[in-house]
Design brief:
Number of helices: 10
Helix content: 40-55%
Strand content: 5-15%
CATH architecture of the largest domain: Alpha-Beta Barrel
């Protein structure tokens, strides 16, 4: 068997054909089979190579954690939260020519790690305090005395998660409208100096129109805004808030979903990049496990980010963008 015959026999096996005897093949047939084999290779191999290349590009993308997913990482090219859904509540350009960055820090109220470091930051932050916890009153009062803004960090039922993570007085899906109202009223009363509210967890509740309608009604009655933390891309909060005359404000970037120092510091770059295309940015960080890293990352990023934007309390940003002012009606023991 000569060399050409061996190639043809190998080709036949590769294509699932029975070996062909050389005496049945003339020159045209041999060249035809070789052409088919060459065409097959040209079609399959580039596709395979492309698949692996695309996979490497996907894995090579920077992973940035944004609002929109119950503590779930999102790999996206843009920094837009939940860009798969149409955004009908995006803020217009603020009245000021300077861009605005509002920093919300969640989970105050339980003497969490990083509490002092956050309150010591030389910039205004918005302190989200959970109600009915050992240091709720102290943390809210300390934040107010230092010139920080205070909001209620209201625990709400998630789609997934342990019930003990919620804390006392949580809003759950089994409550009646009257029970929801009662719990929201009590939470507001328990957090002194509060001018607004956001959700702790709550991926299940923030997608529930019935319950969120009650929550937003109570907020409006007390002259308070509600910030959608964006733990669920199906959240109804911004659209519902707009229909009630409340500012449809929401979180844009989670700073510390991953607790590693390297990741949290990299999120400062995400904020900087966000300002390349947006006039405002609302971010959420936390005291607790990531608290020390988050406070250090914010402090380290100030020289750069203060060149791009003014760092303001959330109510200032809301007033600038939506021309909406807080007007808390419940006594807050202001000193």
């Amino acid at each position: 068997m000569n060399e050409n015959q061996k190639k043809l026999e190998t080709t036949g096996k590769f294509l699932g054909c029975k070996p062909l005897k050389s005496k049945t093949l003339d020159s045209k047939t041999r060249w035809g089979l070789l052409f088919i084999f060459a065409l097959f290779v040209c079609m399959v191999m580039p596709h395979t190579a492309s698949t692996y290349a695309n996979g490497e590009q996907e894995e090579g993308r920077a992973t940035v954690i944004y609002a929109g997913g119950e503590h779930q990482a999102q790999r996206q090219r843009s920094y837009v939260a939940n860009s798969s859904t149409e955004d009908t509540t995006s803020p217009s350009s603020p009245a000021s020519t300077r861009k605005k960055w509002a920093i919300i820090i969640d989970d105050f109220g339980n003497d969490m790690k990083g509490t002092k470091e956050m309150l010591d930051l030389p910039i205004p932050i918005t302190v989200a305090v959970m109600p009915f916890l050992p240091t709720t009153q102290r943390d809210a009062t300390d934040a107010h005395r230092r010139g920080h803004e205070v909001i209620v960090h209201l625990p709400m039922e998630p789609n997934k998660g342990r019930p003990e993570w919620l804390g006392p007085g949580a809003i759950t899906s089994g409550l009646t409208d009257a029970e929801v109202r009662e719990r929201v009223e009590k939470a507001i009363a328990d957090v002194p100096f509060a001018v607004g509210m956001n959700n702790h967890m709550g991926s299940k509740i923030t997608s529930d129109k019935r319950i969120m309608s009650v929550v937003l009604d109570v907020c409006k009655e007390h002259g308070m805004f509600f910030v959608d933390s964006r733990t669920n891309y199906r959240s109804v909060v911004p659209e519902l808030a707009a229909t009630k005359g409340l500012p449809p404000v929401r979180n844009d970037i989670f700073l510390d979903h991953k607790y590693s120092r390297a990741h949290i510091f990299s999120q400062m770059n995400a904020v900087s990049d966000w300002f390349q295309e947006h006039d405002t940015c609302v971010t959420i960080g936390h005291v607790g496990a990531p608290g020390m890293h988050t406070s250090a990352a914010i402090r380290a990023a100030l020289p750069k980010l203060q060149q791009q934007a003014d760092i303001v309390g959330l109510s200032s940003l809301i007033n600038d963008v939506w021309n909406w002012r807080t007007d808390p009606t419940m006594p807050t023991n202001n000193e």
